[in-house]
Description:
By secondary structure, the protein is of the alpha/beta class. Helices cover about 50% and strands about 15% of the residues. Helix 2 crosses helix 11 and helix 2 runs antiparallel to helix 12. The longest helix is centred in the N-terminal third of the chain and has 19 residues.
Amino acid sequence: MKKTLMLTAAMTMITTAAMAEYRMIVPQGPGGGTSVWTNNVRPHLEKFLGEKIIIQNIPGISDIPGFNKFHESLRKDNKTIMVAHGGNGESFLTDKVKYDYRLYEPISLVNLNIAVSHRTDFDPYKQTVKFGATSGRRPDVMGIILLVCGPQSQKNNLQAYINCYNKKMYYVKGMKPGEARLAALRGELNSLRETYISHKKFVQPQIDKGVYKIWFNHGILDLQSGKIVSDPNFKGVPTLEELYVQKWGKKPEGAFYDAYVLVKSFRDVLQKSLWMNRGNPNVGKVRAAVRAMMADPKARAEIYRTSGSYEWLVGPDAGKAFNIIKSSITPTSLKTLVDFTNNGLKIYSVYKPALLK
């Protein structure tokens, strides 16, 4: 009996200690981009939070199951933080998911960006673009189509864009991010997209060799104006809008462009975002820890080194950014995005009118 009581007490202590730790839920397996990012941030956040943080990876198709699990049960734990990425933002718009950002408290959003590059022996305006299809790449595809198709398809005629897509782009499906990158670097694909850090690590060496050239970046959201502006991490590289004007002599416009802005905004502004359940009593504490972390020169320098010098929007600023991108959800932009995904990309997508509320 005494041994049983001792064992029970020991197990209770272990369970209590485990429950006392903060958890960061990552919706993909170890080694994925968001998982690596979380591992880089965790020790710094842990220091300023003053409590231990463990990382729980919950991988699944399109990185949806982990976020769904957070929504269904894990968010009820007051020490659980959801780490979401841009692919989750895309899925929120067009996939059958259970999670809903509007039901959570935004801890922080990292206002990130993506750059698209292509081989120097390839002219994307005259030849077929070969691009790898993985999670979070719809904005890249739509941006490319806007550029290579030009203003002749700029009317609210989605079929014109679909026809142009079928003629000028080969979207290779069923690839993982690493596979798409390797295929592009081997020359099997002629274009690729990367975050600033991945671009610096994988693409810049190819640019230095003259094999690749950077094409455009998607720009970043300016919180004050609510507009997309140039990214200082990609100095001298035009945004899609800037390059479009250079190429075609006018600004992009129309339903297809609005759909691009919608999905690009949810992909990039929510690229690396932290969430806790609404009403969680620890929200203020975690936000304060994030602010302290980013105010610390050493921690900030290390985080910037591993993810680029991008602004962290915390608390109300994160909420403001989310409200800005929500305003890009209109009946036309959402339906155009869904219809292009279904009829152009041939990827199943659902129209969710509840997002308009």
